Amino acid sequence: MLKLTVLCVCVATIYGYPSFLSYIPNGHMVPNPCPGYEGTYWTLVGHRFPVRRQFFQEQSDIRKKLVAQGLNAMDMSVSLLNLFGEAFKNATFSWLKICQEDSDGDGLTNGQELGDPNCEFPAPTARLVNPMGHPGICDNTQADMPNCLAPKADICPKAPVRNSLPVV
Known about the structure:
about 170 residues; mainly alpha
């Protein structure tokens, strides 16, 4: 019975993550700043991976490594969150507590990057604009970001290989 309860909690937790996108402004429209992914969205804004497939693959790889070391993977907690995700979690999932912070250190507040510079979300009258960046990855166009804590080079997955035929 205990195993069934743990399984239910895990499944509910895994499938509960997408609901967090509604806790932040423009959560479903955060641009993916990684080279080769232009025009796509980072659908797991608080995580180190842009899409669920990569998240679950990394989670599986970590568990396999732990088991290979003789450790119980279910007892180990490995964070797959990025800096914005950690800040959001530490703020008990309250947007207003982290809106004015700069989680990635790129010189823009989380609110500016997600299109809520005045921190009005979730008010029904909030005046949101399109998001201009990712709050967990230094992705703005500033030439000098001395405080960057999350550079693209350290976070972005490899660019997808495009199958293309040579032009004749």
